[in-house]
């Protein structure tokens, strides 16, 4: 099988190299092929998602992404929107047809003290956020600034809602069987459609799932004040962007949070943290999220659950034996990665 | 001066009665006039914002609102959208021209333990959220469901951005002089306009203010992991809905959080919590948020800072001497209100 790696910008190259090393170790038959994406790709090819990267995807079984984008004052942010690093990322998601972004949020036993929440609230939290990734206000075709007014349209269709809802129901079947669908149906027509379609699909095909609907503002509160009430959270693109980042702070260590984006073809696997340009190139970034993304790639992309579990276990071990600086430890990228490699059983 | 009270639904009538009692005590010359709004108004007049309520507003110096809306399974939620309780609330905001919603989020010294956050994170938090209240995706004219697709358009114009930004800058001048403007400028054109206009206004007219711009997903994280970094947060309607509810959980007691909505004419003052139909009519609801909303009404609506401070102090005292059930105490609505009245100095 073939995995395309897209190291991207900032700390992306360092942590992707670490994840690639681990991948090579547990799946020696996998071919890794590196391509350009993001700000660096723009600098070289004049396009944050160059044609040669796009072409390479057709042969990929899975894609491992690092991080894209520069600092707030980066010249990349002054480019016309289609040339900015983020546009490369959105175009990549689209090209792969990855409509379901899965973000597990789990507080590891014994690591409750890292959470910004009180330990009794953080304990046992185990949420899976399923975010729709190819629709809504992100992919509006009529977006515009016109004189002193600007417009973006949020739009969803029934097929778009159903395909991502299926992923949430499927995931819930393997977990605790509960899905909370998030919307703003008291204000938005799009949410009304969303709620109706999710409920109808549940009633038609997933009667074993317990489904409820909550407003996005209420979920933002409850995720903090009572996170244990959630199993799977299903939501549209913009709400998912906000809620998945919010939920991600609960474990207290962004540096260990992976994600998987699944859809029609090859899946896309990436850490949820940003490109951290302030520490890029120093070899101190925590590669755990990238390595755990490689584990998700093994599980969902290559259907190798045993190798995935092996990596998960090794990372859990290394986080305890060699914590990185963001976790209050001393280990740099290399030290941590060697600890993972040694812990592979 | 004349104050219109709109008790609304659920616990609204009980807590508004409590707030009205306190208002009468500290401002005996104020005339209070009660009108209908929300689900109850629909039941009687067939309209959640009846014409006679609308007419009464023209004579108001300020409006004191309780809460509107029913339980999730309430028949009100099955009505056509314009007849639902929430539509009454949105129409009221519009009729009053209240474009700036102010929500103070303060953790009282000694009450850090109520917060879901670790005490060391909650300590000293003092944020003012300024949410744009009359624009964006909430007031879209082209909203529609069409077959199996639905659309809502987010739109802002420069004058809309500037008038609410002025409120944020003005408020910051009286606080710590810092404004964080929240957007999603890496994806949305509307946010690009928002960011540009807020910055231009600062550069033109508020050079003493320290302004920075952050993405909404990042703010959702940082409000939880490092809330003390914020002074004034300025944002558009939908992001403000989510972030202001999120921030509201930090003090750990929704029952004590007031809000003020200011604009062209009379201001609107209301608690931020919902109508809590499950405990309505039992006389146990915490009226603190409603009473503190009356204090904001005295301060911003009637320009009586002394009376406002008097009420603030009395509520702070009563919260300690007679905590309500939601705060782990015993006091019911009546007991708490009497404690406030007795504590007025
Ligand atoms: C960089 C940005 C376009 C992106 C998004 O909003 O989807 C990011 O925040 C994310 O969540 O992956
Ligand atoms: C009830 C609803 C329409 C309202 C809003 O979204 O503005 C509420 O959530 C609020 O924040 O006051």
Tell me what the structure shows:
The structure is a homodimer of 345-residue chains. Chain A has 345 residues and is of the alpha/beta class. The first copy, chain A, has 2 domains: 1-97 and 264-345, Isopropylmalate Dehydrogenase; 102-253, 3-Layer(aba) Sandwich (Isopropylmalate Dehydrogenase). Helices cover 41% and strands 21% of the residues of chain A. Chain A is built from 12 helices and 12 strands. The first copy, chain A, has a 10-stranded mixed sheet with strand order 2-1-3-12-11-4-5-10-8-9, with helices on both faces. In chain A, strands 6-7 form a two-stranded antiparallel ribbon. In chain A, helix 7 (189-205) links the parallel strand 8 (178-183) and strand 9 (210-215). In chain A, helix 1 runs parallel beside helix 12, helix 8 packs parallel to helix 9 and helix 10 packs antiparallel against helix 11 (305-321). Chains A and B meet through strand 7, helix 7, helix 8 and helix 9 of A and strand 7, helix 7, helix 8 and helix 9 of B. Strand 7 (149-157) of chain A pairs antiparallel with strand 7 (149-157) of chain B, so a sheet runs across the interface. One 3-isopropylmalic acid (IPM) sits between chains A (86, 89-90, 241) and B (186-187, 217). One 3-isopropylmalic acid (IPM) sits between chains B (86, 89-90, 241) and A (186-187, 217).
